[in-house]
Amino acid sequence: MNVGGFIASILLCISWQASSATVSPISDALCRNMTQAGVMDNTAPVQCQRLRQVIFNYVDFDGKQHNNGHLVVLDAVAPYVGHIFDSLFSAKFPINKAVTIEHYQGDDDRSMTDNNTSAFNYRSISGQRSLSLHAYGLAIDINPVQNPFVEFSTTNIATFKPQAGIKYANRMKYRFGKTERKGMAEEIIELFAKNGFQYWGGFWDTPIDYQHFQVSRDMANLMISMDSQQATMFFKRYVDWYQSCSRFYPQAHSQHKFNDYVEYLKDKLGVSSLSQTYIRSPSRIIQAIQVDSVRSAICVKR
């Protein structure tokens, strides 16, 4: 490289500042705002004391840098969420915007229409009574327009939310004669998975929720039953398990054919639910959360 090229590369590195997400508790003022907006309630499974706000840098679809990305998630996962968005910033993966859901009075449809990336929201699953994993601070929706929610009627008619997401029904990033499409979730499945969000809505048959990343429901119930320190220890083990399985069994990893840490512990303890077992006997679960060698019989699905 010539001197001019070298200097140019240095200047580029300087101009593209390294991101460093910050994690902090929910302030009393923010908690009041969340409650007034209908995003939080005293019946929510997770209260403000167990939530954390993650503030991060991101780049938008025009290549402009922002330092005000803002998500609210469960305390134990917050550092990993920060790492996810630091990695997205470093890779220049575009995010349209990321403001907390109280800006939309908890209205998920409005947030999606505004192509807003979001996390915590005390609400039910769309069209159901069961609580969404967003109500636990354990689900993240990213770029809803580029990654729409697709629902199918009994007569097999597909409905896209937001409506603008229909432009992304074809999920190919590169198409002959067309420009490259950016901000699509398929590019970042592995980044979310190796940071603990192994379940992607794009894997589902119906509805298909391309924007959505979460943990399992049993895992969510377990983590909110634990105290913050226990949940943090468990989530670290969960992430370590995924990374070990993916390293030792690359083919199974590439085919999404290995169990997660929750399934491993259930197999180890001979139980059908970790969260219910923890409620009955917390010490039994805590004692089982330890570093174990990864074995094919329990890591790889049969």
From TrEMBL:
Superkingdom per UniProt: Bacteria
Molecular function terms, GO-annotated: peptidase activity
Swiss-Prot/TrEMBL keywords: Signal
One of the Pfam families matching this protein, by short name: Peptidase_M15_4
Signal peptide boundaries: 1-20
Peptidase M15C domain mapped to chain residues: 127-215
Coiled-coil annotated spans: none
Protein name: Peptidase M15C domain-containing protein
Organism name: Photobacterium frigidiphilum
